[in-house]
Amino acid sequence: MTPQTYAIVTYGCQMNEHDSEIMAGLLESRGLARVEDETGADVVLFNTCTVRDGAEHRAYGRIDTLRGAKRANPDMILAVCGCSAQDKGQELLERFPHIDLVVGTRDYVNIDQLVEEVRRSHQRFVAIDDVDKPLSLPVVPARRSSLKAFVNIMFGCNNRCTFCIVPKTRGEEYSRPLDEIVEEVRRLVAQGFREVCLLGQNVNSYLDAQRHDFSDLLHALDEIDGLWRIRYTTSNPKSARHRHLAAIAECSKVMENLHLPVQSGNNRILRAMKRAYNIERYKFLVALYRDLVPGGALTTDMIVGFPTETEAEFSDTMRLVEQMRFDQQFMFMYSPRRGTVAADTLRNDVPLAAKKDRLQRLITLQEEISLELNRAEEGRVHEVLVEGPSRRGDDLMGRTRTDKTVVFPGDPALVGQLVPVRIAQACGHTLRGELVGADAAKVAAG
Ligand code: SF4
Predict the structure, then answer these.
(1) Ligand 1 in contact with 161 (CB < 6 A)?
(2) What is the three-class DSSP state of 171?
């Protein structure tokens, strides 16, 4: 039976989200239609993440729930893709007898042919190529937004942070040619996209064959007419340079929000993580950023409970958070990843209870700081790109240049527009606002 429908379940980072858009584009180019409920789909892709236990086990749990659906429809084709597939390979076919295909992080660009091969041969197999094989991006991704688009600028990572599995699952760094990226963004603008988010494990080490670096890329994209906003993730303090940060100030389309993962506030732990910078360097970069980009937002990633981390060393992390006053952070307990230096050489000796306690204290502190910073926004007017209806659907939602979510009443015709919004109230992670200027009159007129 020729498959008619597909569903994709995506875990992990924006790179995985964009890989899912590329796989969706490939299946749609074969005439399949997307459905949201995977239990009724002919083809189901699980795009997995292995950066932490939680993400991996959530995916495995969901894969397990499809045993019944597969029994009911033996023609259903189940594939596991992404970093967990690249890392575990054959092991997943043995663990899940009801899945047909395991696809690596260099092979997802052939997902349509691989699914066809399963359908034709009725064989289960693993398609995992050399993780350093150059990646050529095929068809047009089936993007989830018509306003904002993810754009890969590079693949892989040459760093060797001891807790991280990414170099093993995503391979060595490869920077796409600047001209190719500029051309892709021009095409996106011609299709009506107004915001791009540049993706790379470590964008600061972007360097193409013509030796264009990240600052060159930002300046080149800033020239594109019709493009309104440029965001990017992820930066790395080890390779962040003055000219990269200066480009945020110099390029009017580059948004004033920097995600700069620090991971710990203690130098001994940073050495054990092989992060290749110290807290003094980190603070210098933040001071430079805030000098170059007054009012710019700053977010980070933090790991608590890394092997051998003492209570005193965790206090250094808390002190750094009090000093840096991040707008937001992604906070995690250390999770040993098989095949990483930390998991293979360091004892996971911080008790789970201590990890949970430290994580909770960090979250509480960050929530206080985020609310204080959001309260300081009250009364200010921000340029907001209207993305669509709010979650409850009765208002509009959009983001400021500093990547803060704003909800406000307004005419749905404003979706896709840049509008001035005055912040009226700070609510945890969201700001409530009201339109100012001409659009406000329309709202008032009802
Ligand atoms: S910079 Fe470190 S944490 Fe980030 S992807 Fe590379 S190895 Fe992993």
Answers:
(1) yes
(2) coil
User: For 18-57, how does the pLDDT look when each residue is reduced to its tens digit (9 = 90+)?
Assistant: 999 999 999 999 999 999 999 999 999 999 998 888 889 9
SS3 content of the chain, % helix, strand, coil (to 5): 40, 20, 40
State if residue 157 touches ligand 1 by the CB under 6 angstroms criterion: yes
Strands 396-399 and 405-408: antiparallel
* All domains of the chain in start order, with CATH: 5-127 (3.40.50.12160), 148-375 (3.80.30.20), 381-445 (2.40.50.140)
Question: How, if at all, do strands 148-152 and 125-127 pair?
Answer: unpaired
Is the CB of 159 inside a 6 Å radius of any atom of ligand 1?
yes
CA 301 to ligand 1 center in whole angstroms = 11
pTM of the model as a whole: 0.93
Token pair recorded at residue 213? 């670096």
Residue with CA at minimum distance from ligand 1 atom 2? 161
- The string of pLDDT tens digits covering residues 350-408 is 999 999 999 999 999 999 999 999 999 999 999 999 999 998 888 999 999 999 999 99
Q: Quick one: which atom of ligand 1 is closest to the CA of 160?
A: 7
Query: Which atom of ligand 1 is nearest the CA belonging to 236?
Result: 1
C-alpha distance from residue 360 to each of 259, 304, 309, 353, 364 (Å): 22, 10, 16, 11, 6
CA-nearest residue for atom 1, ligand 1, is: 159
